[in-house]
Every structure is written in structure tokens, then in C-alpha cells.
Amino acid sequence: MSGDPPPRPPDRSVAYAIAIVIVLIVVAIAGGVGASRLARPAPSPSPTATPIARPSPTEPPDTGPFVFTQTLSAGCVAGDAVYVVSDGGGIGRFAFDRWQLIDATARSLVAATCAGGRAVAVGGGGRVVTIDDREQTIRSDAIQLDDLLGVAPLGDGVLAVGRAGSVQRQGGGTWGIYATGIDQDLFAVIAFGPLSAWVVGAAGAAYRLEPAGWRPVETGVTSTLRSVAGTSVDDAVAVGDDGVVLVWDGRWMPLPDVPKVSYRAVLRAGAVTYAAGDGGTLISFSNTRSTTSDVRRVDLGTTCTLRSLFSRGDEVWVVGSDGGRAAVWRVRSNGVFHWGECP
């Protein structure tokens, strides 16, 4: 056995100390990182896109002024509204003291008639446009190739007339030819029943519908007749070019003392007849069964070509247009009011 003392175990205090220091450093670093993460401000959320609140319009846009840039040609009253159509433009509607261009489709429409809540307009290429005021719909059909120039209500439908003596009747929703053997262009029609009507047209042509068919009636004029009106087949008046105003009194008789212009429209309104035409001419006369009449000129303050007449209650409405400018006049016993500008 050696006399040397036994070896001393190694002093591990330094190693422990070093280890403790390392642990403390790690803890400190970890704590610092954690503290850093805790102290870092939380990222702000990205803003959500919010639509800009825009007030919804409570009324449709005002298209009224555009009505009077159309070449207005005719009008009538359907339901509670006034409708006007144009030759090469759109359709206007007047209701609640406001005009609107309800259809901007360019169509050649030259005549219109209304019955109840329906308006029917006719024009170039056999076009027929039907407006339902209650349903607020517009329907367009072509029923023939020749132009249609006049239209009138007839019981369950309408009569329409046009070029080359065409006469078409609509009944029960279908169209059919209603005359043969007529060659002249027909510009206007008025109907009192399926076997009672007048049509007038080129070269002074006039035909009277009777149970036996269409009978030609001599007018004594060669000027084109453009409009006809009446309360019955025996109480009618027709007007046309060259100052022609004819009154039916068993035969067609010219009314004297009228301005010598071309007349394009005639209207029976109660006991008064109105005729309208070129140069802003509007006349009225009370006795259509006599050649002696109190012809009176109604001053609208315009030289515009007056193309259509219709009534609403005790009002007379006049449609006129020239050169892409148009106007509508409302004639009452207490004066005249108009919309649009047509010199």
C-alpha cells in the first residue's frame, strides 16, 4: 500500500459555476426576446373597403327635353297619359305634368290613335307600334311592306291604311286585308263600326264603307286629302293640300273662307271642328254641315308645321315639328300653353 495520500476528487465548482452562468445567459436572452415580442406593438388590421353611400334616385332621370328634339308627328291619349310619336325618332309620354322620352328607338311613325289604355301608331314599312299604358309595354310589329299612313280605332281593334290602297284590319289580335281594288295612297281613316267608315287619300280620293263594301265617292278636288274626322259616317269633314276643307252634307262640299294652306289634321271636338296645317295654321268652325261657317283662326304664336290634333276632355292638343325641333300645344278656353320650341 503506497504511502501517498489518496487523490482528491476534481473540483467541479468552476464547471458548475460556468454552467449556471450559461443557463442564466440563455434565460436572459430568452426573456429578452420574449420581452421584445411582448413590447412590440401588435400590427394594425388592414382597413376594410367600405362602399361610399350614394343616395338612390327617387325619380327617373329627366328625359323630357329630349321629347322635343324628335320630329313629332302624331299623338293621342291612352289611360291617364298623353303619348306622342315621331317620324324618325322616339316616343314621348306626358303624365303628372311631366314629359318623358320613354323609348328612344328611331322609328318612322306618322299616325296614332288611342282607345282606352292602348295607343297604336303606324308608319314606314308597315310598322305598327302598340303601347299598353297599364302594363307599361311597347310592342313593335311589321304587318306589310308598304307604308302605313293612317289608323283609327274599331271596336275590338283598329283599321290601318297606307300606300297603294292598302287597308288592314286588326281584330282579335290578328291582322287581315280589309279592302281590295283601291289603288290610291290612303292617308287617313275614321271608323264607326265594321261596316261604316271613311278613308281619304291622294288625288282627292274618298271611299265610304257600307254593308256592300267600299264605295268611291266624288270629292270634286284633286288635291291630296290628309285627314278625316266625324261623329258618324253622315257627319264628317276632310282636309288636305291647297287649302281644301270638305264638309259632308250628303255630298262633299268645300268650306269657303279658310286660309289657303295645306291642312294635315282635322278634329271634331264637341260642336267645334279644328283643322291644322302649315305655317302654324289652326282654325276652328262650329257648323260642319253647312258651307257657311264662322271660321276662326286660333293663334298659337308659331309658324311651325302642325301635324296632329287630338282632344283630352275639353282640351285640344296640337303636335308640330320642323327641322328637328318640335312642340306640343294645349288649347283651353282660358288660353294656350305649350312645351318645346318650334318657331
Structural description of this entry:
The protein has 343 residues and is mainly β. The chain contains two helices and 26 strands. The strands form six sheets. It has a six-stranded antiparallel sheet. The chain has a four-stranded antiparallel sheet with strand order 7-8-9-10, with no helix packed on it.
Secondary structure topology:
Blueprint: H1 13-39, H2 64-67, E1 72-78, E2 81-95, E3 98-115, E4 118-123, E5 127-132, E6 137-142, E7 148-154, E8 157-162, E9 167-171, E10 174-177, E11 186-193, E12 196-201, E13 206-210, E14 213-216, E15 225-232, E16 235-240, E17 245-248, E18 252-254, E19 263-269, E20 272-277, E21 282-285, E22 296-297, E23 306-312, E24 315-322, E25 325-332, E26 335-340
Antiparallel strand pairs: 1-2, 2-3, 3-4, 4-5, 5-6, 7-8, 8-9, 9-10, 11-12, 12-13, 13-14, 15-16, 16-17, 17-18, 19-20, 20-21, 21-22, 23-24, 24-25, 25-26
